[in-house]
Amino acid sequence: MLILHIVFNYFAVRAVCLKTLNEPRFIQLIDTYLKKEIVASPCEINKREPIIFYQLGPMLLDLKICGFKIILGRSMTQTLKHSMKEVHLKKIKEIYRDKKYILFPNTSNRNMYIFFKDGSETDDILCAYFHAVLLSIIICAINDCQLPVFHNSNDVKSFAQVCKMLQSADWSRIPGKGSDFSYEPSYELLSYVHKIATKEWNNMRVFLIRTGWDLSKHLLMVDEWRVCDENLIPKETSLDNTEHMYTPDSISFDDFEENFNENEIELLTDFFQRT
Ligand SMILES: *[C@@H]1O[C@H](CO)[C@@H](O)[C@H](O)[C@H]1NC(C)=O
């Protein structure tokens, strides 16, 4: 019965070209885009969608393609708890200032969190996912972790070449805490990826629409938490937050040293030193 069910489902889905992006379709599109710089049409991607695998096992396409599991819409406060230095968080927030989301890679459990800000819409969610895939792949690159996307092109302008360049650039990474991955992305790298993701998403969006994708809605699985980020206040819409993880806004980067004791400063400089 299971087999029959799957077979019928298979043909049912094959019969139409689904034009809305779900995670498997979107990540395969991004994968093709990064490898070959082409945007596949809905029918091409639908043909490739390995429906049987999705029904029989957990989908780990993201882990396979970009080395991280992408998690959308969690609570930032609950996910990061107290494990994050506030100065670090402030810098991260600064990098994503003009976005409706914040990306946070955890290299120990290979989770790439996308925290959404209040008012994020379909385009922000799609852009965030695209950005998260790029950042994941690039973090794998700086850690010499092999992914299929690195092997696919000899073209000098390709994404694989960008990864190779970042891999050998020492501004791209800082030593991590010695887990699976030994390097964390530097702020310069996060800013750089932010820049290319913004530019590339603008390109890709145009091509997606031209090839017939419907970007007015999406089928990605997004949890409901939203960060109210306007003033860097850690208030979240789904959470009555009494515990504050960040200091008030009045502390700026210039004067933060005065506000920490010496041990803390040492830890911070260790963590943020470039190699
Ligand atoms: C990353 O994940 C590990 C393992 O789940 C956890 O112990 C750690 O606190 C996480 N790091 C951050 C900064 O959230």
Anisotropy-based shape: globular
- In the predicted model, the low-confidence regions spanning at least 5 consecutive residues are 230-234, 239-275
Provide the helix percentage: 40-55%
Radius of gyration: 20 Å
Task: Write up this protein.
The protein has one domain. Helix content is 47%, strand content 13%. It is built from 11 helices and 9 strands. The chain has helices spanning 2-15, 23-36, 42-48, 51-56, 61-66, 76-80, 86-95, 122-142, 159-168, 187-210, 262-272, and strands at residues 20-21, 69-72, 101-106, 111-117, 173-175, 183-185, 214-218, 226-228, 235-236. The strands form 3 sheets. Strands 2, 3, 4, 8 and 9 form a 5-stranded mixed β-sheet that branches. Helix 8 packs across helix 9 (159-168) and helix 8 (122-142) packs across helix 10 (187-210). It is globular.
What are its keywords?
signal; RUS_fam; 275 residues; alpha/beta; 13% strand; two-stranded parallel sheet; UVB_sens_C; Root UVB sensitive protein C-terminal domain-containing protein; 11 helices; binds 2-acetamido-2-deoxy-beta-D-glucopyranose; disordered C terminus
